[in-house]
Amino acid sequence: MSVSLTREFTKGFIRENPVFRIVLGLCPVLAVTTSLKNGIGMGFAATFVLVGSNVIVSLVRKGIPARIRIPCYIVVIASFVTVVDLVMAGYTPELHKSLGIFIPLIVVNCIILGRAEAFASKNTVGRSFIDGIGMGLGFTFALAITAAVREIIGTGKIWDLVLLGTRYNPVLIAVLAPGAFITLGLLIGLFNLLERKEG
Amino acid sequence: MKSPLTLTPSPHVRDGINIKSVMYAVVISLVPAAAGAVYFFGMRALTIMVLACVSAVLTEAICQKATKRKITVGDGSALVTGILLSFNVPPGVPYWMPVVGSVFAIAIAKIPFGGLGYNPLNPALAARAFLLASWPVSMTAAWVAPSRGSLSGINAITTATPLAVFRDARATLLDPGSTLEHIGQANAYLGELYSGSSLRNLFLGNVGGCVGETSVLLLLVGAAYLLLRRIICWRIPLSFIGTVALMTWILGGKGAFQGYPLFHMLSGGLMLGAFFMATDMVTSPVTARGKLFFGVGCGVLTSIIRILGGYPEGVSYSILIMNITVPLIDRYTRPRKLGEVKKS
C-alpha cells in the first residue's frame, strides 16, 4: 500500500482513464455523448453511483461471501442508481428525459462493477472513496471530451453557444451513431499516442 | 555481389503484375466514363473529379508522412479512390464536398486500418456513406440534368432521377388511398420509364445521376478492358447484376414476377458498383465460390433497398455491408487442398 492518495485520485484521468485506457463503460460513452450537457450529466450521475457503491462495498467487504459477491454489488449499485434516477427526474427533468434509458443502465456499467470488484472489495473505505471520485471524474472527463468534439463538429455549437458561424455546414454524422464510434476510436488513438510520447 | 541464380523457395516464375500496374489499369478503364461525365454534365464534373483526386493523393501523402511510413502515393490506389468517390457524388454538390469526402476516405477509412490492403471497407464508398449521412440534402438533391436530356430520361418528369421516379410511382400504386387519377399517372410514368427511348437514354447515360454512374455504355467499355486484362473476373459483376435482375423481376412489379429487370440493370449505380467497386481486390473475397456469394449478397441487398427501402438507390450500402462479411466468406469458402479428405 505504498501508492499515495493523490496518485489514487489522479490515476483515473489519464493513466488509468476508464474509457480511453481501460476501455470500459463504452455503452454510455457512445450513446449519450451527442452534446456536452448530456455527457457531463451522465458523468456526474455515474460518479455519484460509483462513489456510493465503492464506499458501501468497501464497508461491507468482509461480510460478503465470495461466492455471491457479484449479486451483492449489483444490489448496492442498483440502490444508488435508483436514487440518482429519482433525483434527476425531480430536479433536472429535461436532462433526465434526454438521457432516458441510459440512467437505469448505469446499473450494468462495467466501470462501477469493475471498481467494486477490483478495488473497493480489497481496500479501505477512505481509499475506495478517493478511487471512486478519481475514476468517476475520469469517466466524466472522457464523456466531456467525446461529447464536446462531437457537438462542435456535428452542430457547430457547444453548450447552446454558437461556436462556428452560420457559414459552417455541420457534419451531421458526428452526432449520429457512426460519429460516436469514429470519434471514440480517434480519441483512444490519441491517448495511446500521448502515452507513448510520455513513456 | 549479386548471385545470378535465384536462391529462394518456389515459386520462381512470376507475373509482371504489381499494385501499380493494376491501379493504373483501373484508372485507364475509368477514363471513358469520366469523359462521358464531362460530356453530359460539363466542366463541373471535371472540377469535382480533379478536386477529389488531388485531395485523395495529398491526404495519403500527408498521412504517410505523419505516421513515418513509406510514401506510396505513386502506386495509384489513392487516385482510384479519388476518381471513384467523384463518380459517386451528384454533379451539383458544392466543391468542398468531394474534398472532404476524399480526406475522409483516406484519413479515416484507409490509413488508420493500416493502409492499402488492410482496409475492411472500400474507401470511396465509405466516404460516400459519410457524405450521405452528413449532408443528406446536397447528396440527394444536387442533381443536374444532362446537357442533352432530362433528369429522369423521360419527357414527363424533369425533377427526379429515374430510380426516384420509380420509387414514387410504386409507392403511389401500393398506397390504398391513392386516387384513380394518381394511379393512372403513376402507371403512365412507369410505362414511360420502361419504354425504348428511356432505356436508350439510360444505356447511353443521357439521364441524371451521380457524376460517373450514368452511362452504362461507357462503363461497360472500361469493364471490358479490365476483364480482358484479367484484372477483375466475371464472378462478382455477373452474380451481382444477375441477382438484381432476378430479384427486381420477382419483386419489382405489382404482383410477383411482374417487375421490369432491364430498367433496374441499366439505372442507378449498378454497373459502376458491380464492375468497379464490388470487385475491389482488397475488400472482396479471394475464393471463386466466395466471389459468387459476395455478388449474390450485394444483389439481394441492392434490390431490397431499391424496392422496399427508403432510399431510391442501394448499390453503395449493399457493397459496404457485404465488405464487412468478406473475412467470413473467405473463411467458409476455403477451397479444399489437393488430396484433402472431406471431413464427414
How would you briefly describe this protein structure?
By secondary structure, chain A is mostly helical. Chain A contains 8 helices and 2 strands, in the order αααααααββα.
Q: What is this structure's SSE topology?
A:
The complex is a heterodimer of chains A (199) and B (344).
Chain A lengths: L4 H6 L15 H7 L3 H24 L9 H23 L1 H7 L10 H11 L4 H31 L1 E2 L2 E2 L14 H22 L1
Antiparallel strand pairs in A: 1-2
Helix pairs in contact in A: 3-4, 3-6, 3-7, 4-5, 4-6, 6-7
Chain B lengths: L18 H23 L1 H24 L10 H11 L8 H12 L15 H12 L1 H6 L20 H13 L5 H14 L2 H9 L11 H13 L6 H17 L9 H6 L3 H8 L10 H21 L6 H18 L12
Helix pairs in contact in B: 1-2, 1-3, 1-10, 2-3, 2-4, 3-4, 3-5, 4-5, 5-15, 7-8, 10-13, 11-13, 11-14, 14-15
Give a structural overview.
The complex is a heterodimer of chains A (199) and B (344). Chain A has 199 residues and is mostly helical. Chain A contains eight helices and two strands, in the order αααααααββα. In chain A, strands 1-2 form a two-stranded antiparallel sheet. The radius of gyration of chain A is 18 Å and the shape is globular. Helix content of chain B is 60%, strand content 0%. In chain B, helix 3 runs parallel beside helix 5, helix 4 packs across helix 5 and helix 5 crosses helix 15. Chain B starts with 18 loop residues before the first helix and ends in a 12-residue tail after the last helix. At the A-B interface, helix 8 of A face helix 5 of B.
Helix content of chain B: 55-70%
Supply the helix-strand structural class of chain A.
mainly alpha
Query: For the residues shown, what is the average pLDDT of chain A?
Result: 91
Number of helices of chain A: 8
Unreliable segments of 5+ consecutive residues of chain A: none
Question: Could you tell me which chain pair has the largest interface and how many residues each side has?
Answer: A-B, 12 and 7 residues
* Estimated share of beta-strand residues of chain A: under 5%
Q: What value does the average pLDDT of chain B take?
A: 91
Helix/sheet category of chain B: mainly alpha
Any idea what the shape of chain B is? globular
- Strand share of the residues of chain B? under 5%
Order of secondary-structure elements of chain B? HHHHHHHHHHHHHHH
Shape of chain A: globular
Distance between the termini of chain B: 54 Å
Gyration radius over CA of chain B: 21 Å
Biggest sheet of chain B: strands, sense, closure? none
Order of helices and strands of chain A: HHHHHHHEEH
